[in-house]
From TrEMBL:
<feature type="binding site">
    <location>
        <position position="13"/>
    </location>
    <ligand>
        <name>3-dehydroquinate</name>
    </ligand>
</feature>
<keyword id="KW-0456">Lyase</keyword>
<dbReference type="GO" id="GO:0008652">
    <property type="term" value="P:amino acid biosynthetic process"/>
</dbReference>
<dbReference type="GO" id="GO:0009423">
    <property type="term" value="P:chorismate biosynthetic process"/>
</dbReference>
<protein>
    <recommendedName>
        <fullName>3-dehydroquinate dehydratase</fullName>
        <ecNumber>4.2.1.10</ecNumber>
    </recommendedName>
</protein>
<feature type="binding site">
    <location>
        <position position="217"/>
    </location>
    <ligand>
        <name>3-dehydroquinate</name>
    </ligand>
</feature>
<feature type="binding site">
    <location>
        <position position="192"/>
    </location>
    <ligand>
        <name>3-dehydroquinate</name>
    </ligand>
</feature>
<feature type="binding site">
    <location>
        <begin position="31"/>
        <end position="33"/>
    </location>
    <ligand>
        <name>3-dehydroquinate</name>
    </ligand>
</feature>
<dbReference type="GO" id="GO:0046279">
    <property type="term" value="P:3,4-dihydroxybenzoate biosynthetic process"/>
</dbReference>
<keyword id="KW-0704">Schiff base</keyword>
<comment type="similarity">
    <text>Belongs to the type-I 3-dehydroquinase family.</text>
</comment>
<keyword id="KW-0057">Aromatic amino acid biosynthesis</keyword>
<keyword id="KW-0028">Amino-acid biosynthesis</keyword>
<feature type="active site" description="Proton donor/acceptor">
    <location>
        <position position="125"/>
    </location>
</feature>
<dbReference type="Pfam" id="PF01487">
    <property type="entry name" value="DHquinase_I"/>
</dbReference>
<comment type="subunit">
    <text>Homodimer.</text>
</comment>
<dbReference type="GO" id="GO:0003855">
    <property type="term" value="F:3-dehydroquinate dehydratase activity"/>
</dbReference>
Length: 231
């Protein structure tokens, strides 16, 4: 199963693939947060939903729940499932932040994903703030070059920071970089609806607002409506 990174896709973000039927009405894909799930690989074996999956196995050091060791091997096993359309790998991982000693290396994971028909989303998260415009440009450039799309989630503390992220998204799109952006936190919330207007290719939302996977997310039905209204 695939979804195109050439246009916007809305992912229902969840640790529970049993939510897929409820997500179908509004989502184009499901982000399966393996790091937040109990038995992620067994769960994938049993997946028979309709929506394509983007798998994420976020380590502690980038805001997730997985211990660093073994997580790249788990992603390598995950991409072998037919339902997987894309895999999220942190830019820091792709740049060589140490993984487990006997694990597949990041370049091997990228190759394995692509050989199995899965696109690679190279991701960067800043849970503290929004870097300067020059740094935003550099991160988006690097992430877009490292994967089939580069994703940047920052934390906006002011409207000005949210605007910086939107402007960087616009610049990236104009220069031809395939990016996905969102600002976390209350001040950044509207960017989740507006960034697609400036070229962001991916959005994330929980089916139920109570199960948010990041600060400031809209629920899925709301984000679908907002994005569709603005585009
Ligand atoms: O990287 C992202 C974006 C995100 O952090 C957000 O802000 O919506 C949610 C995460 O689940 C996803 O992996």
């Amino acid at each position: 199963m695939t979804f195109a990174l050439d246009s916007f896709s809305l992912c229902a973000s969840t640790a529970d693939l049993d939510e897929e039927p409820a997500a179908r009405e509004h989502a184009d894909c499901v982000e399966f947060r393996m790091d937040l799930a109990e038995e992620p690989l067994a769960t994938l074996d049993g997946y028979d939903g309709e929506l394509p999956l983007l798998v994420t196995n976020r380590p502690h050091w980038e805001g997730g729940e997985t211990a660093p060791y073994g997580r790249l091997d788990a992603l390598a096993a995950a991409v072998e499932h037919e339902a997987i359309a894309a895999v999220d790998v942190e830019l820091a991982t792709l740049r060589g932040r140490p993984a487990g000693t006997n694990e597949i290396d990041p370049a091997g994971l990228v190759e394995h994903a692509r050989a199995n028909g899965a696109a690679v989303v190279a991701s960067v998260h800043d849970f503290d703030g929004t870097p300067s415009p020059a740094t935003l440009d550099g991160l988006l450039r690097a992430a877009a070059a490292a994967g089939d799309a580069g994703k940047l989630a920052v934390t906006a503390r002011t409207n000005g920071e949210a605007l910086d992220l939107l402007a960087a998204t616009h610049r990236a799109t104009i220069r031809g970089d395939r990016v996905a952006t969102m600002a976390m936190g209350e001040a950044g919330r509207h960017t989740r609806a507006v960034a697609p207007v400036y070229g962001s290719r991916l959005g994330y939302a929980p089916v139920d607002a109570a199960d948010a996977t990041a600060p400031g997310q809209y629920d899925l039905a709301t984000l679908r409506r907002l994005v569709d209204d603005l585009s």
